[in-house]
Amino acid sequence: xxxRTPAFRSRLFLTLFxxxxxxxxxxxxxxxxxxxxxxFSGVVADERGAVLPDARVTARLVSTxxxxxxxxxxxxxxxxxxxPPGAYTLRAERAGFxxxxxxxxxxxxxxxxxxDFTLRPxxxxxxxxxxxxRETPALDTTRTVAGGTVTREEFERLPLFSRSPxxxxxxxxxxxxxxLSTRDAAEDRDATGRARxxxxxxEEAGTFALAGGPASxxxxxxxxxxxxxxxxxxxxxxPPSDAVEEVQVVTxxxxxxxxxxxxxxxxxxxxxxxxxxxxxxxxxxxDESLNANTWNNNRRGLKRLPLQEHRPAFSLGGxxxxxxxxxxxxxxxxxxxxxxxxxxxxLIDVLVPVERNPRFPLPNPTTxxxxxxxxxxxxxxxxAELAPFVERVSTPLRATxxxxxxxxxxxxxxxxxFLFQLGRSENLRQFGGGSRLADGLQGRRRxxxxxxxxxxxxxxxxTVNQLRAQASRLRPSTRAAGARPVVLITIEDPLSSESxxxxxxxxxxxxxxxxxxxxxxxxxxxxxRGAHTFKLGADLQRVRSAYKDLADATxxxxxxxxxxxxxxxxxRFRRRFGAESAxxxxxxxxxxxxxxxxxxxxxxxxxLRYEREGVLKDRDNFxxxxxxxxxxxxxxxxxxRAGFGVFYNRALLRTIxxxxxxxxxxxxxxxxxPSSQRRAFIEANLRFPQTPDVDSPLVxxxxxxxxxxxxxxxxxIKIPESYQANVGFERELGRGFVFEADYTFNRGIHLWREFNxxxxxxxxxxxxxxxxxxxxxxxxxxxxxxxxxxxxxSTAGELVRFTLxxxxxxxxxxxVEFGVPVTIFNLGSVGSNTTIDAALAALQPxxxxxxxxxxxxLASIGNSFYHGLSVEARRRFKLSxxxxxxxxxxAYTLSRLIDDGVVNTSSALRVG
Length: 912
Description:
Layout: H1 6-25, E1 38-46, E2 56-61, E3 67-71, E4 77-83, E5 87-93, E6 99-106, E7 112-114, E8 117-119, E9 129-132, E10 146-151, H2 152-157, E11 175-177, E12 188-189, E13 195-196, E14 208-210, E15 219-222, E16 225-226, E17 228-229, E18 234-235, E19 244-252, E20 265-270, E21 278-287, H3 295-300, E22 308-319, E23 321-322, E24 325-326, E25 331-343, E26 345-353, E27 372-373, E28 385-394, E29 397-411, E30 414-427, E31 442-460, E32 463-480, E33 486-491, E34 500-504, E35 512-529, E36 532-549, E37 556-559, H4 562-566, E38 572-577, E39 580-599, E40 602-613, E41 621-630, E42 638-648, H5 653-658, E43 666-669, H6 678-685, H7 697-702, E44 709-713, E45 721-734, E46 737-756, H8 769-774, E47 778-779, E48 799-803, E49 812-817, E50 820-826, H9 833-843, E51 854-877, E52 886-899
Parallel strand pairs: 1-7, 1-8, 6-9, 15-20, 33-37, 44-51, 48-50
Antiparallel strand pairs: 1-4, 2-3, 2-5, 5-6, 10-19, 11-14, 12-13, 15-16, 17-18, 19-20, 21-22, 22-25, 23-24, 25-29, 26-28, 27-28, 29-30, 30-31, 31-32, 32-35, 33-34, 35-36, 36-39, 37-38, 38-43, 39-40, 40-41, 41-42, 42-45, 45-46, 46-51, 47-48, 49-50, 51-52
């Protein structure tokens, strides 16, 4: 099913591994392909072209004044690596020569800038400096990864309604929405005028797809550290928009430095302070009067839905100055705060009993006008008098995000940065009213905190070490505020032909609670040995995800009428216990990455990464990466790129949890008793509104584990992986315009899919199950308990026969043959559930385990194929003296994706 035999995979891995080792061991210049930092390299020579050894080259970060220096080698080459992105001034100097400076060199994360210096002899009587303000080269002719970067300046100038930094990824080619996306779906009204909002996409659907990979296969990082919600396929935290300096999107990451993604990588780089104290204050406001009405509302003559959004934000950064400490040039801070408040409300319009139940008081009717009696109640209870209860309830969205960053320079060769993140969110807007009271209102909360530290240390002129560490916490939940039992009351309105169910006390349908903690440690070492530079490192993460399914967790009482509720006579009680789990995952990844320059025009990269997700037994996750960048004419105005790599996704803990949760679940449900015994049992053993605990004799005696539906993991389940290849061409057209075209191939294998492992097996000699059902009569005799195996209606025959007639024919008929009654089902009646149920019952003996029905199994059997051609044109306009500037970006993607699933874990599809 996966399209690759073990022998093929072994040969492919050994071949690529050998190529990696050969390229890493060659004795020409090698550089680590860095995705988060920038590097400068080049040659220092005199006017005649003779190289100048021992020349000093200094890179100075304009915002903070931090400097990094090195000297040229015997061939006049210099190299500065692991520098933070930003605007730089580069200075080259040597005794007897006039120094040369390059100013206003604006760099982005992952950029490798090549700058050559030509020094002229200096006059003896004075020191001279030659200043050049040429812009940073428009092309990075050594870059082998495919992707792009959106800067803070672009974000501030774009009218982005969501104000979400991650929405900027859609500006780049090769990025698509997640499956079943409801982005930008209109908020309409239904026929009654109530608000109607689109349902959210499934949690496992992801947030966006990169270059044909599943939307659940991306790795989101903040300053290079993990920012994923490991249970869901989304980010853990989004910084305030003012705190983001860059959004870096790597659609094909042919570098081994980062993993946990069979798709792509998105890195949010946060802002740091500078030597100047600067702040920003903004207020974003939205109102329905500024929006167009929807077509559906206009068709019905309805007004726009009320909407008012307030989003104040501020940021402040600069040197840290305290009464006893002046941090100018050494210690810098940057803090950003953003608050979102969307005003909303919903209308509760229900019927409630006029009389109160002292054991479980409901709110009094808001008016007695229109009071009426329900038609009936369960004898001996009397029908209740009902009256309207109308209340408008505030259902706002409140969200807060805050980041604080502190950068400190311990010395010229040692600096560090602390980052604190705080996110709080409570969303009540999904509550659409309906027949429920305010105490049944569910809210979605999402709280998160994180503390991260990055340490950069230049040990020697040939050794640079980077250490990153992070501790994070995530607490999402969907639940009602109270912990009372749920009360469901069937309301029969004599003025309506339909009954409704009033929800009171609480609401646990779809309610969940979980907590995720993460500890992460990254170590990256860059070694320069003569002409060699290697980059190697490790990433360790310990993730614990605790989950609790709150459905019926507090107990649920059902009443057949309002009169039964007033008489404390429930018709049903149910409660679930043990619906909780904890998944622990220890992730380890190690890598080796390098670059090889056979000539000034050609760059070859090679890397190897090994990854292991401890929550699964899959251990052979080796990912070789190869890349090429060629400057055809060596003028820095065009580059041809190609790359190939094997990538592995991270283990989505929700998927694993869904197929292991439930083994300890105990359900106590009075509906498991015969219908004639239920009310007497409830009256004798339960006292509304009290609920029995798991240790009570009642639950121990009558609680049961669910057996009609079960899930399990395939013993051979593997981490999803992808084989990616890319060929691209980038050309500077002049005046800063850049054109880029890329072809991408992405082959996904071992994708997670679920299937019914206990499905009936078709006997030999039949084309399909229809032919099998038509081939014989099926015995339908009563067993010892009086039950029939196929069809149990009172008119059921001793035999069951299936026919195939036009849909207009009777769905179910009866005949008597040789004195034996036969029930005949028409398989052509596709709209009859009774026929389908009878057919499934007839097929029950063909299941591997006839005593069970559905057993969903998660297996690595999914496949996908992606071919995409993307083109992009862009230009950055230089800032003028008055601060004016801008950028232009246009992109188009033509692609084809063949996938046998829709979202992660969906059942595999076979078209046709």
